[in-house]
Design goal:
Order of helices and strands of chain B: HHHHHHHHHHHHHHHHHH
Number of strands of chain A: 17
Oligomer: heterodimer
Shape of chain A: globular
Helix content of chain A: 25-40%
Structural class of chain B: mainly alpha
Number of strands of chain B: 0
Largest sheet of chain B: none
Chain lengths: ~525, ~350
Amino acid sequence: MKKKYNFSGGIKCLSIKEELDKYIIYHIPNPNKFYMYIQHNTFKNNMLRVRINQKVLCGEPLTFGDKSSVPIHSPTSGWIKSIELDSHSISSKKKYIKITIVSDYLNQWIRLKKINDYKLYSPKSLIKIIYQLGVVGLGGAHFSSSEKLILGINSKVHTLVVNAVESDPYITADYCLMTNCLSEIFIGCEIITWISKVTNILIVIQEDKIELISKIQSLIKNKKLFKVCILKKKYPGGSSKIIIKSLTGKDIPYGKHSIDIGYLIFNVSTIYAIKKAIINGKPLIQRIVSLYNHRNHSFKNVLIKIGTPINFLLNFLKINNSSNDIYIGGLFMKYLLMNLNQPILKDTNCISITKHTRNVKKNINYECINCGYCVQVCPVNLLPQKLYLYSKNNNHEKTKESFIMDCIECNICEQICPSNIPLVTYFKHEKFIQNQIDKENKKKKEFFYRFQLREKRILNQKKSFYQNKNDFNNTDLTNTNILNKKTNKNFINQKQIDKNIRKEILRSSIERAKLKNKNL
Amino acid sequence: MNLPYIYNTYNVKKIMFFVLIASIPAILTECYFFGLVILIQTFLFVMFSLLFEIIILKIRKKNIKNNLLDNSSILTGVLLSLSVPSTLTWWMIMFSSFFAIIVAKHLYGGLGQNIFNPAMIGYAALLISFPLYMSSWHKENTNFFSLNDLKISINSIFFQTSKSDLFLKNYPDSFTEATPLNNTKNKSRIFYNIDSLYTKLKNKKQNNFSSWNYINVSFLLGGVFLLYKKIICWRIPFSFLFALVIFSIFDYFFLTNFIFSPFLHLFSGGTMMCAFFIATDPVTTSYSNIGKIVFGLIIGFLVYVLRIYSDYPDGVAFSVLFGNMLVPLIDDCLKSSGYGRKKT
């Protein structure tokens, strides 16, 4: 047996029922309308390339991108119906530009630039192609992978970590992709090695996928670069911090990425997208989403275009909307969908369906009995119950001292808590408050700095006044030269001035005392 | 809130219920050795603690149904009845359960907020105020579950027939202490050779002497059940027993004749009950893993010291209470560092 890598904390889940059609990818036809969301921010130059009633082809870029946000491509050929400001249900406070595209069911592609031999190109030009074709991290971080590669070139990277671990226990999208197109993923790995010159590649897989591991090992035998690492099956294994901790035993320092230690981490589906972008020339317009049904523990993996509304997908698979609650995300990190017209974004892994129940079970909330289950389970070494007590009593200093900002919101502590306390909602609220306090502190520092400058200026004025008391009549007060540092430096000796001021104060106080004595 | 797919998920209610189940063998063995008094006593303890709980909840204007059904007050009553000797009158039971529920638990702010272990506070209040009753146990029960036994026990609890009469009539050879701790201690003060005492006891009445061994073993069984269910952590009981054994061995090798043997320390008095049922109360112990070990070591040391040098026969209750006092200090000193930061 090979060594199994492990990390402290985490949770085991019951295994799922195996089905025959689990790893077959379903293809979904084009819907009538597509909805694309574009980040809209005044500080970033994210400009539109299209206007209303314009005809677009499949794969045509809709925007000019910025350094942090990549361009977005149209998933079908058709007409642009409307462009408006809207907010989607994930973050209702932010506003996004929403583009609706009506498809003409023809799927005409624009001309694609295919590259057969990528070794003829320099790494920087390859990165530029990846950037232009809109590849982002598909694991859920939504971080643009071209920027990651640039950072990897600048700071020397020695290993590439291929993340094939699902973030939630019952998602199978990554596994499905691995079984169906393994050879393409290997080509993608080789492209990344050409770009960033890594010396070894680690493929991280959980232990229960035995067939895939043996398949990969037989393929790897001749290649020296590759190596397979087997993780234990526990819940928060998908996060990059935890993967690196379990592989190397090192913690990533706070506020830094894994690149700073020397590890590049890419999700499997991102690598697949990079391969498609460079060798086939296709932009990122489709991804694999896994459907999870709570009622009978069943799965479906669906190849779907980004921008198709979820309502269409459910209608196509004949799933009843009225009797089900539909969530985005897996078992642990999920949130309820209020608007079913919301499209699939680039970072949606999973759609989970539960039975709609009006009479929710009465979960009695007891008080915290200090049992310590959450401490033993926490993957990032925090103390959730102390954090809960501090945040409940509005003790913001103590919460900061016990590192609330490190919490990754994995929801385990909330699930395992015997008194049913909604811990993570407390933490989210507390994090919001901490951010506001930080902002205020920054403002205070700035104002204090300005105040100090003003004090200095006034003091200098006084000094110059006392220094030039003798020739007070000669100097012109309105002259701005008094405030100038250059002129002041010439004739001010600081110690002398201080002495003079003190002498003056003493003299005046002595005079006052004398006056008092006389009066008595 | 708890998902059905995770291993080992518990409620507060479920945790308390499992501890109650784990204490059943101990109740049964005590019943075998001391008669039906034990059952009546536990019933009374539970009823009084529930009654006080209802009264205080009404005064505090809280939801009675939710707070009563979390089984914690029942558990307090059962643990109290297991720790006190078997012939208390009904008003003493009321007195101790009043201290346990109202003073120790609800005056500090209810479940989860109390600093001291409520059962041990009830025991300590009895021990301080009625030392004579608390140090006298009646002898082993010969006619198990008979009508006579029931009569005697009801008499002793409700009508308070004078203690000396009762035992002198029925058990003239009574061995006033169930735990041999007090007896041996008194003898050891005057440099009595313990080995000869052992042999005497073993020859005379083997059953009586070993009754507490059996009760301790039954507590151990319950503790193993709790450990298997992962309701309690292994750290506290093991560190506690480890410290007790280490200190007693250390002394035993130098003064073999008039110091208890480590075996006697382990299987007499309330050692096993303290290790698995009382010291592991989650509310009053430290939350971090290292803190739990430190807490166990402190209690083990205190039990050893109080047994050897104090005037009380068994130092479990006081040592647990002293340990509870030190818990906030331990928690404050042993902070775990955050993720990816240097330990300071």
